[in-house]
Write a structure and sequence with these properties.
globular; alpha/beta; 10 strands; 30% helix
Length: 236
């Protein structure tokens, strides 16, 4: 995408009351994502983990017909999910998926990463639900969206995955659990990549090339491009 079109979408997002604070995904990160999207006569499919105001950016891109895009947005916090639902009324190119969280053990974590191809089918039978009262915890361990069996995404269809939720180290679980829906050369934007070993975890599942990273003030994000998955050689 060209900068002129990206700026148009950002401007309209501001008009739709994009709240910009330390918890909001960097607008520069979205600029770099869009500058690296190459789809010709195809729908760009985005999977966003964490339902921040950046959803308004994908909304604007579609409404202004600057990019044929469909974004699926996952959000675990019930209040935030409700706010987003109200903001995205009559927006057919965005799908909001509200889900509770579940927390898995160290042993279950290891099995998920050791056998990424089987992780999705095993997900419903492991872990324990996280109480809604803990939805705001930033230090929760091994927690991820629980209701993935209700999420319907075609295989190898996602061009861009934004990893901005949930809180804690558990967002790394996106790598094995969505390995079946990401394209082999998908872009992955990882916010706050320095908080936990998100890139180390990514490297367990994929080969990738780093496209750009920002380390400025409280902004820490990295954009990578996948170069295929690593072979799952472990026994079931």
């Amino acid at each position: 995408m060209i900068m002129r079109d990206i700026e148009k979408a950002l401007q309209q997002s501001n008009c739709n009351h994009w709240r910009f604070n330390s918890l909001t995904l960097s607008k520069q990160a979205l600029v770099h994502v869009c500058r690296n999207i190459y789809v010709e006569n195809e729908m760009c499919k985005v999977l966003q983990l964490g339902g921040g105001d950046s959803a308004l950016f994908w909304k604007s891109l579609g409404e202004l017909e600057l990019l044929p895009v469909h974004a699926t947005i996952l959000e675990h916090h019930p209040i935030r999910a409700k706010e987003l639902k109200e903001s995205l009324v009559d927006t057919p190119h965005l799908t909001l998926f509200g889900s509770s969280l579940k927390q898995i053990t160290d042993e279950e974590w290891k099995k998920v990463f050791d056998h990424p191809k089987q992780s999705k089918e095993r997900w419903s039978s492991i872990g324990q639900l996280v109480p809604e009262s803990q939805a705001d915890l930033f230090s929760i361990r091994h927690a991820f969206y629980s209701d993935l069996d209700q999420l319907s995404i075609p295989a190898h269809s996602i061009d861009v995955m934004i990893v901005d939720g949930p809180h804690g180290n558990g967002r790394s679980l996106a790598y094995p659990l969505f390995s079946d829906v990401l394209k082999p050369d998908a872009l992955i934007l990882v916010d706050d990549f320095n908080h936990y070993p998100f890139l180390v975890d990514l490297g367990q599942i994929y080969r990738y090339e780093e496209v750009f990273r920002e380390i400025s003030g409280d902004r820490r994000w990295v954009l990578v491009k996948l170069a295929g998955t690593k072979t799952d050689t472990h026994a079931n």
